[in-house]
Each structure stands twice: as C-alpha cells, then as structure tokens.
Amino acid sequence: MDGVMFVRLINEIFDYCKGLLDLKNDEYTSGQDRLYNFRLQSRMLSLREEEVALNLVSKQFASLIEIIKNHREDKYPLLLKEKIPDIINYMALLYAIIKEKNL
Question: pTM, whole model, 2 decimals?
C-alpha cells in the first residue's frame, strides 16, 4: 500500500470514528459530559473510569481476536464497520479519561 492510499484510509477510519462518537453522544452521555457513562459505570461497579474503559474495549478485542484467529473473513465487514471503530473510539475515550486526570 502506498503512502497516499494509507493516509486516505487513516482519514477515512478517523472520520468514521468521529461520526460514531457524535452519533452515540446522546445515547451514552449526559449531553454536557462526554465521559458521563464511564463515570456512572465507575460508581456502579466500584471501578476506576480507566478500568471501565479497558473492560469495554477488552470485549471488542476478544471478538476481534476470535474472528481473525478463526479465519472468519466473512466477518471482516463487521470488523471494518463495528469492532475496529469501537476499539479506536474506546482508546480515544480512555485517552480523554487519562488526559483529564493529568491536566
């Protein structure tokens, strides 16, 4: 893959991920606090917000691993539209959680 194509794909996935974050904002946040759901689950489960994020992303990673390990190429569209973007977004949310604590 050449550099131009790679940059195009990176921009494509990041734009898609940003769109998903915006789409899910109303469902998972209080409107003002983009990390609301992590704070709520943190209190409910007696976990730190970082641990909540890791638990959520680990579910996506487990599914990703099983699909790839078992040569389930028929599931690749699912990886491209759901699993990989969710992993990227959970990592971005974890970044925000950690960054907020270190400001």
Answer: 0.88
